[in-house]
Specification:
Chain A: This is ABC transporter permease. The complex is a heterodimer of chains A (about 220) and B (about 250). In chain A, helix 2 runs antiparallel to helix 3, helix 2 runs antiparallel to helix 7 and helix 7 runs antiparallel to helix 9. Chain A has a domain of about 150 residues: MetI-like (MetI-like fold). Chain A starts with 5 loop residues before the first helix and ends with a helix. Chain A is mostly helical and about 220 residues long. Chain B has about 250 residues and is of the alpha/beta class. Chain B has a single domain, classed as Rossmann fold, CATH 3.40.50. Chain B contains nine helices and ten strands. The chains are: A mainly alpha (about 220), B alpha/beta (about 250). At the A-B interface, helix 6 and helix 7 of A face helix 2, strand 6, helix 3 and helix 5 of B. The structure holds adenosine-5'-diphosphate (ADP) and magnesium ion (MG). Magnesium ion (MG) binds next to helix 1 of chain B.
Chain lengths: ~220, ~250
């Protein structure tokens, strides 16, 4: 058994941190795209738009029902064989695409639940003064649903950051990929992976702290 | 003028009412009474198209629509001519009292915000809540919330305001302030249809009381006549029961 090589770990820190931006960028891009897609899916589900609703249900069922890793391999290694114009898809794009589709399926369901949770009588009140469905959604339902869904959506964002580590299986040198390479050349696997675990952990802790503050603010909203 | 002609409403196989007729002059105030489950709420909701009638004609002011082929545009137009006050207030939880009142003026009528707020503050003054402009519904008492609900209906400048048991969800201590506000509106000759079992209110304010039972209008007339000399046996039975709890 060897003693923990702290010097090696400290030396590794700046190297690994230089890959953190890519990890966060992939997560941020995936989050923004997933939010947009999830809102669309949720509205389709809530309004039970004919045809589209069935498609949305199929989409959600597939992306919740299969592992993210399988989906990533499908997009990166599989799809380009079928859709040849995708041959040029790089690992980063495939990761963002995979994260977007996978997480939008989960997020759509939380947004849908939050929308449905808004007191039905407020919907009637809005209609009774002549608002259209769109106005009702934009001005009354979505603001309240957002408040309810935000903590859950933050959780998905945190999950997504951790899930970016799968990108290394598509050959992307992000935080996890870089750690893997460093470990393979130094053979100090424990130190390397412990270091990367600590980095992920701290990032997640910072976000959880933000999430708690946000939740407090959201709980106070509309109470005054 | 408000007119319902041959309004019919079914839920699946259950016919709530069939071929109902009701007419109101402008400025008229009618109170609808009747046992629960009779279709009073559904009738009000049909006038506002919160429920789509299955057949019949609705006329409100210069708008007249046939329920069998009402267009989306006609429905929106009808809703702009009618306003609804809900039993459970149904205020927008994410809007302050002022914004609850102004929402329709801004979004539906397209009034500039400053103008809407000026009118909104006038209405808050009239409903006695000038100091609550920035309060959210969650921080208001039931009585205050219902007054905001009425304020929101007043802001719509509707031809008729429909009240569905506006005081029956309230703690007794808040009932009077809501009824007082409704009386004030009645004095201004705001056309109203009120479903309520506040007999004292009906007697003081209503031009006409309508008794409904089992999806039918059984009898109607000025409150003094209907309360003191009901013709139909069902009306008599209902009044005996209600007046025992809620004397006029
Ligand atoms: N959305 C609905 N779906 C099915 N049945 C309904 C619905 N709303 C009301 N009803 C039925 O219609 C009848 C009239 O109800 P309602 O108008 O609420 O009566 P009231 O207001 O006089 O108590 C009742 O039998 C009720 O069960
Ligand atoms: Mg009712």
């Amino acid at each position: 058994m060897h003693v923990l090589d702290l010097d090696y770990m400290l030396g590794l820190l700046p190297i690994l941190l230089s890959y953190l931006p890519l990890t966060l960028e992939m997560a941020a891009a995936g989050m923004v795209a997933a939010l947009i897609l999830a809102c669309l899916l949720a509205v389709v589900r809530v309004q039970r738009m004919p045809g589209l609703n069935a498609l949305a249900m199929l989409f959600i069922s597939f992306f919740r029902g299969t592992p993210l890793l399988v989906q990533l391999f499908l997009f990166y290694y599989g799809l380009p064989q079928v859709l040849t114009f995708l041959v040029a898809i790089n690992g980063i794009t495939a990761t963002i695409l995979g994260l977007t589709l996978h997480f939008s399926a989960y997020m759509a369901e939380s947004i849908r639940a939050a929308i449905v949770g808004v007191d039905r009588s407020q919907t009637e009140a809005a209609l009774s003064i002549g608002m259209t469905q769109g106005q009702l959604m934009r001005r009354i339902v979505l603001p309240q649903a957002t408040r309810v869904a935000t903590p859950t959506l933050m959780n998905y964002f945190i999950d997504m950051i951790k899930a970016t580590s799968l990108a290394f299986t598509l050959g992307v040198t992000e935080l996890m990929g870089a750690t893997q390479k460093e470990a393979a050349s130094s053979f100090l696997y424990f130190e390397a992976f412990l270091m990367v675990a600590i980095i992920y952990w701290i990032v997640v802790e910072i976000l959880s702290w933000l999430q708690r503050r946000m939740e407090k603010r959201l709980n106070r909203a509309y109470q005054r | 003028m408000i007119a319902l002609n041959g309004i019919t409403k079914r839920f699946g196989a259950h016919t709530v009412f069939d071929n109902i007729d009701l007419e109101l002059e402008q400025g008229e105030i009618i109170v609808i009474i009747g046992p629960s489950g009779t279709g009073k709420s559904t009738l009000l909701r049909c006038i506002n198209y919160l429920e789509a009638p299955d057949a019949g004609r609705l006329t409100v002011g210069d708008l007249s629509l046939d329920a069998r082929h009402a267009t989306r545009r006609e429905i929106l137009a009808l809703r702009r001519r009618t306003a609804f006050v809900f039993q459970n207030y149904a205020l927008f939880a994410n809007k302050t009292a002022l914004d609850n009142i102004c929402e329709g003026m801004i979004v539906v009528d397209g009034l500039p915000k400053a103008q809407a707020h000026a009118r909104g503050r006038e209405i808050l003054e009239r409903i006695g809540l000038a100091d609550k402009a920035d309060a959210y519904p969650a921080s208001l008492s039931g009585g205050q919330q219902q007054r905001v609900g009425i304020g929101r209906a007043m802001a719509a400048k509707a031809e008729v305001i429909l009240f569905d048991e506006p005081t029956s969800a309230l703690d007794p201590e808040w009932v009077d302030e809501v009824l007082a506000l409704m009386k004030q509106l009645a004095l201004e000759r705001q056309t109203m249809i009120v479903v309520s079992h506040e007999m004292q209110f009906a007697r003081e304010v209503a031009d006409r009381v309508v008794f409904m039972d089992d999806g039918r209008i059984i009898e109607q007339g000025p409150p003094d006549e209907l309360f003191t000399n009901p013709q139909d046996e069902r009306t008599q039975r209902f009044l005996r029961k209600v007046l025992a709890h809620n004397p006029a």
